[in-house]
UniProtKB/TrEMBL annotation:
GO terms for cellular component: extracellular region. Keywords: Carbohydrate metabolism, Cell wall biogenesis/degradation, Disulfide bond, Glycoprotein, Glycosidase, Hydrolase, Polysaccharide degradation, Secreted, Signal. Belongs to the glycosyl hydrolase 28 family. It comes from Pholiota conissans. This is galacturonan 1,4-alpha-galacturonidase. Specific in hydrolyzing the terminal glycosidic bond of polygalacturonic acid and oligogalacturonates.
Length: 413
């Protein structure tokens, strides 16, 4: 099918060099695209810049045409929000750029509201059978947002791309530049694959590119994030409530907060599930965390379960917390003892994790009292602290696996 053989351009170079670190790329899932010839739809439309707000034209083209191409020489100016939900059988081939304006008064008042963690987004993309590719760029114009947020923490900043109520989506060969906040949210998605995405969000000022997570997966099932390079200022990938069956493979994350489960169990009355996650072949550099699980404890929090999570083949360099479980997240020891976490953590594997930490404690497995963590496995762990001797700490759990002896007080023999 023509749709699946688009030009890869520069992005392919990155793909090749990431793949060199791990097994060759074979997605176990590819959306079953079947774009019927719909006589009411024009087959292909090409969109050039108008000089004004291109958002309504882009939206209309996507609604009316099966394939919409934005040529390489074109930068569309996106000045108003785009509701592209409920689509069917669409191919958006972005070879050029979508540049979102940094009109803060407009966007902060008009971005689509995302109730989860009180956020907004520029763009809702949803429906069934959607291919978004082309080697082009989403430019979020983030610098002004980061600078403004630094002095106004209640400023709502837009997520660049939200895959919203969607099934069978492939996002491939896209660059994402300077997102004001999260780069990607998968919100109620099923069978969504990202492949060869290049994310860059680095501030030129003294203000951080705050909260520029690569991906957040929320209430979504069967998601894959593959073969991508991320330079950002918050989680590289985060698994939020009800992220299930997620594969993360061949990522190169720099400057991030790591591959992160959670935080979970924050909101009273809510039950959060993260289950069946495999994150493998990850290179993590200059990061706050490597492989992380965090769940709330204390009074007035929620509950949930984190089950069957594997972190495998991580190469870490200068990471503050290369391996971390924190089941007393945001809770002091007294409160955690009195109100242990109701988010259980079970069947966790840290396999083949190597590299360096920036602190003596290179691995910290810390659970709530009362046996709330079970079946925690560590194998082939080789982490060092270049400035001294590395230490491995643990509390309130039993550790198994060939590296369990690194955690002598918790090792089950
Ligand atoms: C991966 O990240 C490392 C450290 O930041 C960098 O040196 C390397 O060039 C990156 N590789 C790719 C393919 O981007
Ligand atoms: C987006 O458009 C759909 C279809 O027109 C509509 O049902 C929905 O309410 C809109 N969503 C938002 C958040 O405006
Ligand atoms: C920072 O400056 C460089 C060089 O001018 C530019 O390429 C880059 O896009 C800028 N970054 C941001 C976030 O604006
Ligand atoms: C901070 O941002 C909020 C939300 O956009 C806005 O209502 C408020 O006026 C801003 N505060 C300041 C001091 O600019
Ligand atoms: C997660 O799924 C469970 C089971 O379907 C449901 O009870 C719970 O409300 C969901 N949680 C969230 C945050 O959506
Ligand atoms: C655990 O998760 C992995 C990766 O998603 C999956 O392949 C495997 O089937 C799951 N195991 C169980 C027992 O569900
Ligand atoms: C451990 O991970 C590294 C880095 O991804 C990989 O090169 C190596 O083959 C892995 N070792 C095993 C035994 O899988
Ligand atoms: C621990 O947290 C509890 C509940 O949030 C708080 O009341 C208490 O003062 C804290 N104790 C210490 C020693 O910080
Ligand atoms: C660790 O294992 C021992 C022996 O099976 C058991 O008695 C204990 O409750 C376990 N501790 C935790 C924190 O799970």
């Amino acid at each position: 099918m023509r749709f699946l053989t688009t030009s890869f351009g520069i992005a392919t170079l990155c793909l090749t060099s990431v793949v060199a670190n791990g097994p060759s790329f074979k997605p176990f899932f590819r959306p079953p695209f079947n774009f019927p010839k719909n006589p009411e739809n024009k087959e292909t439309c090409t969109l050039k810049a108008s000089g004004g707000d291109d958002a309504p034209r882009f939206l209309k083209a996507v609604q009316e045409c099966t394939t919409v191409t934005v040529p390489a020489s074109t930068t569309l100016s996106i000045q108003t929000r785009m509701n592209m939900t409920g689509l069917r059988d669409k191919h958006i081939q972005l070879e050029g750029t979508l540049k979102f304006t940094d009109n803060i008064p407009y966007w902060s008042g008009n971005g689509f509201f995302i109730p989860f963690q009180t956020q907004i987004t520029f763009w809702l993309l949803g429906g069934t059978n959607i291919l978004f590719d082309g080697g082009g760029t989403l430019d979020g114009s983030g610098q002004l947002w980061w600078d403004t947020f630094a002095s106004n923490s209640s400023l709502l900043r837009p997520i660049t791309l939200t895959i919203f109520e969607a099934e069978n989506v492939l996002v491939e060969n896209i660059h994402m530049l300077n997102s004001p906040e999260w780069n990607n949210l998968v919100n109620e998605g099923k069978n969504v694959v990202y492949n060869n995405i290049n994310i860059h969000a680095v501030s030129n000022s003294s203000h951080n590119a705050a909260n520029t997570d690569g991906w957040n997966v929320y209430r979504s099932d069967n998601i894959q994030i593959l073969n991508s390079v991320i330079v950002n200022g918050d989680d590289c990938v985060a698994f939020k409530p009800n992220a299930t069956n997620v594969l993360v493979e061949n990522l190169n994350c720099t400057g991030s907060h790591g591959i992160s489960v959670g935080s979970l169990g924050q909101f009273p009355g809510m039950f959060d599930i993260v289950e069946n996650v495999l994150a493998k072949n990850v290179r993590m550099t200059n990061a706050q965390n490597g492989a992380r699980i965090k769940a709330w404890a204390g009074p007035n929090v929620g509950s949930g379960i984190v089950k069957n999570i594997t972190f495998e083949n991580f190469i870490e360099a200068a990471v503050d917390n290369p391996i971390i479980i924190d089941q007393c997240y945001m809770t002091n020891a007294t409160a955690c003892a009195q109100f242990p976490s109701n988010t259980l953590i079970q069947d966790i594997w840290f396999n083949n994790i190597t590299g360096t930490g920036t602190k003596a404690v290179v691995a910290s497995l810390s659970c709530s009292p009362d046996g709330r963590c079970s079946d925690i496995n560590v194998n082939d762990i080789s982490l060092s602290f270049p400035k001294g001797s590395a230490s491995f700490t643990c509390q309130n759990l039993n550790v198994t696996g060939d590296a369990a002896s690194l955690f002598p007080t918790c090792a089950l023999t």
